[in-house]
Amino acid sequence: MDNAAVAARLDEYAALLELAGAQYYSYRAYRRAADLIRATPAPIDELVRTGRVRELRGIGAGIETRLRELVETGELAELRELERTVSPELAAYGRLLGIGAQRAVDIGRALGIRTVEELRSAAAEGRLREVPGIGPKTEAKIVAAIERGTVQPSRVVLLNRARALVERIAEEVGGVAAGDPRRWKDACTWLAVAAHSGDLASVPEIVSLVAPNVGITVEGIPVELHVAPAESFGTA
């Protein structure tokens, strides 16, 4: 796994730890480790295999263990377990809509749903009012957010994070980075990838599709895919 892929897994792990109620310092440490690895020029898998990864400031024994598991197996067993109890898809969608990851996950648990489509259906059927703590006003706010939708991040994504994310996704679909990261904007609000073909459904960083050409990461960051033929690819 390259540095961007490892960092993406740590970001996802940190996000689900937070939603599962882990202590702040715990999930914050994994977020910092992800940022550090993303900015490290040396291949992280080589540092792990040679026992030198703890030379990086902020990488302790616990994170080293997780990194070794990632490098050797490509997965984190605890991350897979967290995904069974906390829906990354609903968490991401909640962040995207602005209702919050925890609120979206709590709705999912109360209604026994795990996907964006199930949440949309539940809202359309008036089932949100069955969730404890959701009254008419809150229900109307959530329904309005779902109906409104968005393809823009709810927050600015800094260039180093945005560039690494779109380049990784571009590699997965055989395309190139586009949008604000391609323009090297320090603060990115439009993340995109251009490709001749492909889709986002099988990209590891994407936990859900909110439109045919728009996927979201576990952090609620939307990325658009623009598919264009060779003759118009440069323009796209």
Q: Level of helix content?
A: 40-55%
* Strand ordering within the main sheet: 2-4-7-6-5
Query: What is the tally of helical segments?
Result: 11
Uncertain regions: pLDDT < 50 for 5+ in a row? none
Per DSSP E runs of 2 or more residues, the count of β-strands stands at: 7
Task: Please provide the ordered H/E string of secondary-structure elements.
Answer: HHHHHHHHHEHEHEEEEE
Structural class: alpha+beta
Strand content range: 5-15%
Backbone shape = globular
The main sheet comes to:
5 strands, mixed
Radius of gyration, taken over Cα atoms and rounded to an integer in Å: 19 Å
Would you tell me the overall average pLDDT? Answer: 88
Report the span from N to C terminus: 30 Å
Give your account of this protein's structure.
The model has no long low-confidence stretch (mean pLDDT 88). The protein has helices spanning 3-19, 24-39, 44-49, 61-73, 77-85, 88-97, 101-111, 116-124, 136-148, 159-173, 179-182, and strands at 157-158, 176-178, 187-188, 191-195, 208-211, 214-216, 222-227. The protein has a 5-stranded mixed sheet. α1 runs antiparallel to α2, α1 packs across α5 (77-85) and α6 (88-97) crosses α7. It is built from 11 helices and 7 strands. 52% of the residues lie in helices and 11% in strands. With 236 residues, the protein is α+β, with helices and mostly antiparallel strands.
